[in-house]
Amino acid sequence: MKSSSSTLLVLSPVVPYPPHDGDKLRIYMILKGLKKQGYVIDLFCLTRIREDLKYIDQLKLLCRRIHVSYLKTSDVVLNLVAAIGSGRSLNIWAYFSQSFRNELLNYYRSQENNITAVYCYRIRMAPYAFLNPKLSPVILDLTDCLFSYFQMLQSQVSWANWQYRILAWWEGKFLLKQEISYAQKSNRTIVISATEAAKLQNEGVPRDKIVVVPNGMDDNFKKMKFKKPLLYRSYNPVLCFVGNMGYLPNEEGALWFLKKVWPFILKKYSHPLLVLAGGHPSRKLLRHSAQNVLITGYVFEIEGYLAGASVSIAPLSIAVGMQNKIILSFLLGVPVVATSAAAAFLGPQASQWLQVEDEAEKFAAAIIAVFENSRATEARKKRAKFFALTQFSWERSMQMLRQALVEAPNIRFAE
Predict the structure, then answer these.
(1) Domain of residue 384, residue span
(2) Whole-number pLDDT of residue 110
(3) 326 and 208 in a common domain
(4) Hey, which residues does 40 pair with through a beta bridge?
(5) Which value, to the nearest 10 degrees, does the dihedral of the CA atoms of residues 302, 271, 285, 365 take?
């Protein structure tokens, strides 16, 4: 049945504004798309960032109702202690809030049968999605399979980061069970790539419940012009790695590149520049700052740093889901060299669009080949840009989401 006033309850562990990182960008663009498709949206968020509370007004153009609960650090610590004592996933239980739960129960009671569906963004919000006594259909947007991330963490991270190894062991034991259970209970489970869909299938989630909805590019991207850093003019080549440098896989990737790959580049070129662009670099990473190693910290517009680079690198040994940095590089016409982990979301045809290497010396050789084999580089860049333009638009992604909602049992879709 179709309705022009269908109501979606959206649950999110982040305030979707400003959309300056992957988590916020995805849910913000989905909210925009759902609003455009005719849904009335009620948004319930948790946040661990107090500053996010000032952005609530920015979301009122998209949502009829907004409720945000702030999780204090002390709340999270108590939740983690409770999770350890009761044998639960730390990632999920860290986001428990009794006051948020009560607000949601009151909302469910007031809505009676008026909720078309619950759109649950990320596994952390799944316990709240099934509180409704009327059992509204649930669309669970996992985006990535978090259990897979912790499995990779356990096998890849050194014991120097022992706390992450212990966390990975714990989550490998408890998160997998809960993530699969919630995926099976949901009417539809959404992931960001076919690679993530295959992981769910391998754990027993029926294929017809899984829908792939990738991230897209900004609708106005092709019209945008990005300012390239003036510093780039003094160096050649410029290698750029973008991402949140406080995120362990990015930090580990950057450190591996600096220690294992960068020496080969320094031997080959007299004035190269390595740019690590993104927020929250650790002291360990900052110690590598040098005249030819720029570690920027947070930058408002990451595109300019990429657009001016000679090559974009993604030296990740741990990667799940879709790597936005790679698609952004494709769209900007910047050649990419990546590890197999970083390129996995592209599937077996990845080498059509970028160079894939895992060994340090071969990774360096692939970077050098970008400049020494210009004809092959130009052909790969053209294929990559066409691929990104045709496969990664928010308009296309929202069509895929719309189709998933149309086909999901018991959901009335708005026109």
Answers:
(1) 221-391
(2) 87
(3) no
(4) 7
(5) 90
